[in-house]
Write a structure and sequence with these properties.
Belongs to the PRAME family. Keywords: Leucine-rich repeat, Repeat. By secondary structure, this protein is of the alpha/beta class. The chain has three domains: 111 residues, no CATH class; 137 residues, Leucine-rich repeat, LRR (right-handed beta-alpha superhelix) (Alpha-Beta Horseshoe); 159 residues, Alpha-Beta Horseshoe (Leucine-rich repeat, LRR (right-handed beta-alpha superhelix)). Helix content is 39%, strand content 16%. The chain contains 19 helices and 16 strands. It has a 16-stranded mixed β-sheet that branches. Helix 18 links the parallel strand 12 and strand 13. Helix 1 runs antiparallel to helix 2. It is elongated.
């Protein structure tokens, strides 16, 4: 009886304070409650939902494992953003495991707790940053996270970053949401424990991943993890591996199951010298055919892909939706590739086009001109760095550039362009009201004989001349600056108009 009275006393104290209590009083009440573990667990059944986040934070920080397990089971919101709290608190591994154990206990119960609402355990550290700080005791901050009926006189359902409370069928699985980065080194103890729980979850725990990065990891390890992941949850995939075509073929079936994928980056895929042409063609077809299943793909990045020459069309034919970003960098392309690219129906809505490091010096400018014209209504960012484009080719695309009404950034450093062509470019683009940054190469006239040493005095003079033209033509705020590789380390050195020294120039 005495314990019941004490428990009722705590409950009534919390209810009296409600959401309008000063933050310090809430903290003191929480500290008082945590002094009695059994009482704290018993009080969760009637604890006002707005007090769960501050109390959970205190429990998590104080490593009260048993209370933490109970709070996970009684969590009154649709989503528990544990990852954001872990980023701030740097938790002990046992504390993290206690939270997952609470989920395990919850799912094992035939009769779920009355207040059970949890659908998503979010372990990502870069989302829901404001959830744990918004509970400052002010009604305005708290109301956005409550059930509509819990805060009067609100009449409409409100939703904040996926954290709205809602009904949940008892048999539905709980999603554990992570961002995965697979790389060599010490195994991630937290990830290993999550996977263990997924295996033990009898289908009631779904491991979901919106962002997946893969570095140099044995393919078998990748397969073992991907078998545990709901592949249709992946929206952003980066593959930064020195794979050959055969290894890429092993990965292809997994890619085809990522139906929600919006962004794909593929880097450093090479062909084996022992692969026959027939096997090579089979491997390329096996991989590109997976794009037929990617109905939401909007961003495609292909970097250092050795088999792309004369095969770009195989990628383009399998695209199911218009792209917003296309980046093909440090690859060999043929004139046929560029022609097919300019004819592709799925590039008409491009906002970002990056062809840096693709040698275009031996390709006629007509295909590039058509490509820019096809995207002129939507293109915002164009990168042609280190393409080997010379005066005649650049002059040919100037009219098309002048029609890119949405262009905001133009970059073409590292190309052998003369001052006369730069001035011509300025005149063609001066009417583009949204163009505010142009990154250009040091003109040929700023070098000593035969494209040798850069003459900084000449560069400063020509840069000042371009600035004067901008002033005279009414665009003084348009930023033109130059960049060229550092002769020592290869990194860019910027000039505006004086050089911004590369770190290798600076004294130790």
């Amino acid at each position: 009886v005495g314990r019941r009275r004490l428990q009722d006393s705590f409950r009534s104290r919390f209810f009296r304070m409600g959401v309008q209590a000063p933050r310090r009083l809430l903290e003191l009440a929480g500290q008082s409650l945590l002094k009695n573990e059994a009482l704290a667990i018993a009080a969760l059944e009637e604890l006002p939902m707005e007090l769960f986040p501050p109390l959970f934070t205190a429990v998590f920080t104080g490593r009260h494992s048993n209370i933490l397990k109970a709070m996970v089971q009684a969590w009154p919101f649709r989503c528990l953003p544990l990852g954001a709290l872990m980023k701030e608190q740097q938790p002990h591994q046992e504390t993290f495991q206690a939270a997952l154990d609470g989920l395990d206990v919850l799912l094992a119960q035939e009769v779920r707790p009355r207040r059970w609402k949890l659908q998503v355990l979010d372990l990502r550290k870069k989302v829901h940053q404001d959830f744990w700080t918004v509970w400052s005791g002010t009604r305005a901050g708290i109301c956005s996270f409550l059930e509509p009926e819990a805060v009067q006189p609100m009449r409409k359902r409100r939703k904040v970053d996926g954290l709205r409370v809602g009904p949940k069928p008892p048999s539905a699985p709980v999603e554990v949401l992570v961002d995965l980065c697979l790389k060599e080194g010490t195994p991630d103890a937290s990830l290993a424990y999550v996977i263990k729980k997924v295996k033990q979850g009898r289908g009631l725990v779904h491991l979901c991943c919106k962002r997946l990065k893969i570095f140099a990891v044995p393919m078998q390890n990748i397969k073992n993890i991907l078998k545990m992941v709901q592949l249709d949850s992946i929206q952003d995939l980066e593959v930064n591996c020195t794979w050959n075509l055969s290894t890429l073929g092993q990965f292809a079936p997994y890619l085809g199951q990522m139906g929600s994928l919006r962004r794909l980056l593929l880097s450093h895929i090479r062909m084996s010298s022992h692969t026959t042409p027939a096997k090579e063609e089979q491997g390329v077809s096996q991989f590109t055919s997976q794009f037929l299943s990617l109905h939401h793909l909007r961003e495609l990045y292909l970097d250092s892909i050795s088999f792309l020459k004369d095969r770009l069309d195989q990628f383009l034919r399998c695209l199911k939706t218009p792209l917003e970003t296309l980046s093909i960098t440090n690859c060999l392309l043929s004139e046929l590739d560029l022609t097919r690219l300019s004819q592709c129906p799925n590039i008409s809505q491009l906002k970002h086009l990056d062809l840096s490091g693709v040698t275009l010096s031996c390709i006629s400018p007509e295909s590039l001109q058509v490509l820019i014209e096809r995207t002129s209504a939507t293109l915002q960012d164009l990168d042609l760095d280190e393409c080997g484009i010379m005066d005649s080719q650049f002059t040919a695309i100037l009219p098309a550039l002048g029609r890119c009404s949405q262009l905001t950034i133009l970059s073409f450093s590292g190309n052998p362009i003369s001052m006369a062509v730069l001035e011509n470019l300025l005149r063609h683009t001066i009417g583009l009201s949204k163009l505010n940054h142009v990154l250009y190469p040091a003109p040929l006239e700023t070098y000593e004989v035969d494209y040798g040493t850069l003459h900084l005095g000449r560069l400063a003079y020509l840069h000042a001349r371009l600035k004067q033209m901008l002033q005279e033509l009414g665009r003084p705020n348009m930023v033109w600056f130059s960049a060229n590789p550092c002769p020592y380390c290869g990194d860019r050195t910027f000039y505006d108009p004086e050089p911004i020294p590369c770190p290798c120039y600076l004294p130790a």
